[in-house]
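User: Is it possible to get a 3D structure for a protein together with its bound compound? The compound here is aspartic acid. I've pasted both below.
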Amino acid sequence: MQKAIFLLFIFLSITSCKKKVENVVEAPNQKAEFSIVIHGGAGTILREHLSTENEAIYRAKLEEAIRVGYNILVNGGSSIDAVEKTIHVLEDSSLFNAGKGAVFTNAETNEHDASIMDGKTLNAGASAGTKTVKNPISLARAIMEHSPHVMFSGSGAEQFAEEQGLTIVDPKYFFTEKSFNALKRVKQAQVNAHYNTNINDSKFGTVGCVALDKDGNLAAGTSTGGMTNKRWGRIGDSPIIGAGTYANNNTCAVSSTGWGEYFIRAMVAHDISALMEYKNLSLAEAAKEVIQNKLPSLDDGQGDGGVIAIDKLGNMVMEFNTAGMFRATMNDKGDLYIGMFAN
Ligand code: ASP
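Assistant: Yes, that's possible. Here is the predicted structure of the complex:
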């Protein structure tokens, strides 16, 4: 009997110790007044591929973009405004696969996808396959705020953008030497490989932003040109709410980048939120589970990419399973972090 009581005591001590340790791990960070994270795409971003000069150019653009959002948030602006205006800077740059720098389709056009979500109302807007809207993220926002729908595509979306007074440009505006050469390379590689080459060789550079504002509202947005050489009106995860973008004030805001087909099948952004909501995982644990375990479990680990995310306490996460991801964070103290490579 005495032995049984002694063993029970040992067992209870071990479990209570374990619980304490878990609690330490789970303890939320101090709540931030606001915070913001951006990405400029995940992929084979290796130090040896990027000259010092180019690295500085990417750093400067990431900093310029995130400071736009930071200034909105520090002055009490909304997370939706911060997300939209930050993404404008990235869309207006030819460095990324979004807006101006969008990749080319097989038909030598540029077709944009974008989405945005408001974590307070769970309202969302998305546009797919537009060719003339200068800032697709603003179209996504206009759809969210000024239509009874969530997603528009193609010429109808362009007509709506015009009616909303958004800037419409000649499709030639989106021509960049870099993206056109990438198309030529991918097409040539396909010829060399007798059409067996993976069309996803040149797909990265999507942009995204997640933010928490001083009112505790989360928002997320994503904008992309999709995949080089895409055909048949292919749409990736970026404009799909729950895959490329998701925000919910009860959990987190997420923007994805990577091989869209896998991100759609794994419902990446919503899955991270659901793991927090239903399984009580922290944001870091949830993002890790989805990006490092769930995605790689599909088709022998072909689902490469990453996410940026913020939870309702302002904790920031940048999780990716690729060699690198263009990324930056700023917190309410004004601390700036910029990253590109895995470490
Ligand atoms: N997710 C995007 C797509 O599949 C591409 C990317 O993030 O680079 O369209």
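The longest strand covers residues 35-43. Residues 41, 97, 203-206, 224, 226-227, 236-238, 257-260 surround aspartic acid (CB under 6 Å).
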